Amino acid sequence: MQRLVFRFYAELNDFLSPEQKQAEFAHWLKEPASIKDAIEALGVPHPEVDLILVNGVSVGFDYLTQHCDRIAVYPLSKALEVGFTSLVRPAPLPQIKFVLDVHLGKLATYLRLLGFNALYRRDYDDAELAQISSQQQRILLTQDRGLLKRSVVTHGYIVRSHVPEQQAKEVLDRFHLHDAVAPLERCPRCNGQLVAVDKAEISDRIPPLTRLHYNEFSRCQSCSQIYWKGAHYDRIQQLVERVT
Q: Is the pLDDT of residue 25 over 90?
């Protein structure tokens, strides 16, 4: 048997039982295990972890536990303050893109309205979501811990709130995206990119009153939906103001 002493910091405590939160606690293993497996057995998905110190030394996910190890586990928000070189932090993504699980459809719409590439389909299963996240280098957003624990997933986040608008704010805060918000750059229906289109080119698709009062239009490159800065734009601006 191995006796390990764990301490989890900041938001990683969201995943622990009440008696484990914000405190050191002992955890017993029948045999040595990778530190990744030991941490996830306690309920913390590995993509939420940014730094692991074992007896004061930074280790990677493949470290094998030893009897009497003292293990400190940090999320990104606190790891940068500690000052150690992290051996578990994945390489930065070339660009911020998301894929969302089936329960986060409204959040996907909000992220698109805010200008972010957010892939979402109701028929994705867990294996597909994990593969898309890995192969397309997308951050996997989910409320399913088991999904985020899949070894193929390197970038992911458990969305805590159950209120879509609060979820959007949560994601912006977690990934420091407030300055990247760009309304009317993504189609909220299909995630396609919006490009400016000449009014004359689409005049037959525009309602008469809209033709009379608006001159600037965008068209989705994927589904061809037409957009203009009407009443919906005011609502988007209000959403941006609330979540940022």
A: yes
